[in-house]
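[09:14] KT: can someone run the structure on this one? pasting the chain below
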Amino acid sequence: MTVPLVSLSNLSTEPSPSPQVAAIWAALCAEAVNASAKDAALTRAMNSAVLYHASFAQALAQRVAIKLANHDLDHDELLAVIAQAFVGNRNIVADAAADLTAIKARDPSNMEILTPFLYFKGFVALQGQRVAHWLWHHDRLHLARHIQSRISEVFGVDIHPAAKMGKSIMLDHGSGLVIGETAVVEDDVSILQNVTLGGTGKEAGDRHPKVRRGALIGAGAKILGNIEIGVGAKRRSRQAFRQRILLALISTDGQNADQSPSRRSPKVGRHSNRSMLR
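[09:31] RB: done, structure tokens below
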């Protein structure tokens, strides 16, 4: 498949213009200016990462390239690949904006857009996986694998290029996260550190978990096999299970279907309106 050459200049305007992307870019620029004003030592960094760019897409492409470039695929080569992906699938940039919006809304330790954009490895790792996913579906498998490997080396996050990732996703911390080839993570999902969405080792084909919209996966959870985590479900930390889990297991009144009122699951953070699966 022939892919047209694309450079950073092709991203001088947003490939997916939308009110959300425009709002994220405006907030990012304003916060970068404020950070420079508060600490002059950050002026060059803020200019390079944000303020010298003409669009959110440009700044994002540059950020991912800086983090993942190495001697095998240098910065300029990788930047051209990322720009191709952003132009080839305009949802990538829009989904990144949605991720930043979700992180600001859900993470009580963060009140801005600039911090996750610059410093949250879960956010940058996810954008790199989206580029790898685009490459995977354009039969550029080795390049997709290269990016997967670099994400794992740099961030300690290992997401297969074929895994299907939605938008408005928060990968909190990200360290130790493993997501397998046939896994699906839908929109509005939050996943904490050291989570595995893996196979059992005894299956072939479609063999990884499906995490439905709005689910929360706690730190250290090991979810193995082609099972389903229902819409809005919560998965407690450090538990491994293989049985099929459906939305039907969660009652509509906010408690587990098999629990009495005296044994209701505790409310947790900003996902307190959803049930926690035991």
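[09:33] KT: thanks! The two ends are 47 Å apart (CA to CA).
[09:34] RB: yep, looked fine to me
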